[in-house]
Amino acid sequence: MRPYKVLVVDDxxxxxxxxxxxIENEPNFKxxxxxxxxxxxxxxxxxxxxxxxxxxxxxxxxxxxxxLKAIMAExxxxxxxxxxxxxxxxxxxxxxxxxxAFDFIRKPSISNSQDITAVGIALREQMKGAMLxxxxxxxxxxxxxxxxxxxxxxxxxxxxxxxLPEPSVRKPVQPKNATEVPVKxxxxxxxxxxxxxxxxxxxxxxxxxxTRNLSQTSAVPPKPAAPxxxxxxxxxxxxxxxxxxxxxxxxxxxxxxxxxxxGSDRKLGTKGLRKLVAVxxxxxxxxxxxxxxxxIPADFPAPIVIVQHMPPNFTKSLAQRLNTFSPxxxxxxxxxxxxxxxAAYIAPGGFHLxxxxxxxxxxxxxxxxxxxxxxxxPSVDTMFExxxxxxxxxxxxxxxTGMGSDGAKMMKALYDTGVTSTFAESEETCVVYGMPxxxxxxxxxxxxxxxxxxxxxxxxxxx
Length: 463
Hints:
The structure is a single chain. The chain has helices at 13-23, 38-48, 64-74, 87-98, 113-153, 285-294, 314-323, 380-387, 408-416, 435-441, 451-462; strands at residues 4-9, 29-35, 52-56, 79-83, 103-106, 171-173, 178-180, 275-281, 304-308, 329-332, 343-346, 352-357, 363-368, 394-399, 421-425, 447-449. By secondary structure, the protein is an alpha/beta fold. Strands 6-7-16-15-14-8-9-11-10 form a nine-stranded mixed beta sheet, with helices on both faces.
């Protein structure tokens, strides 16, 4: 098999050399060309027809975001962005992911050999994932074309052409194209749609051993400000980018020694929470989350907790970006935040997010820096696992695009214990059909849906 051809784009000759060397440590990839800016990158794509591009975000003449949009419009191919950790670099990276970039890595520190090695490992893993995803997509398209040709050749002359549907073992539900797999383990009965869920304990039940003390956490980020009153907002028109005058504040430095927030600091919130949605995603997640959250109404009667695999600091920019599109109030989660309907909380990079009971029938976010799980912190499995004992809540779990299998094991555990509903993004819309595939193979997914149909069906299920 010939090596995959890679174009390396960076305005620094030294960085082009570092990235090229990291790439060619993998024998299946070969750097066939380099470019110093976005304009030159477009020319080299037309000349060399690479299989993959690594693209610096910030460059003179034409930056990486502008070049990415041109490449995706003319010659779509996998592009991995290389981003600095400054404010502008993070903002542009989030927009690049929305615009079709396969994924991103932060640029390595040229003075730290260990950091360069770690970035190289992450880059090569992403390149392999990008090529695998492309080949699977091409194979799927080829298979569909073959099915159609076979059908056409067997059709009598003059018959009306009919495109065969994609093979499926699922039966349709509303909305259109939704698929339900009614597989339930022995001994577990599915919940009727109108079944009255358990009442949450009131304040008088505090101290009975069912409420965890947040002060037991080994390490927490800074104390959050008291949540502001949620205001219903008119859904904004989707725009390809934020106005140039809008800037994202520098993310605060995370402190691991700040004492936990006491109960007296967490009084604001919605008492007697009854419903909760948990979402996990990875590669392709920022674009998927944008589509998903744009279609959740402001009066959604449940909070949404989200794990997106992403390094520290970038999750802050992601949350702020998504907040400009979604009718919900989207924010980066902070330790001790009380969950409330109409809000979405994104786990900060570098911390596991779990949901724990609080006083008065409320539920709070707990953040820890325990060991990575499935190679990730935050981990979807860790978040889903925290929902297992919360049987008083109507729980809904969602897995969308991403490499690997994070989240599948604990979605299976939730399904086996009678969680209300489980969703997975279907292969046809996934950037990488890894995490959803793992869940589907465990037979724990009730609804397998194209990305654009997940939010409407979830709203229907929750409401």
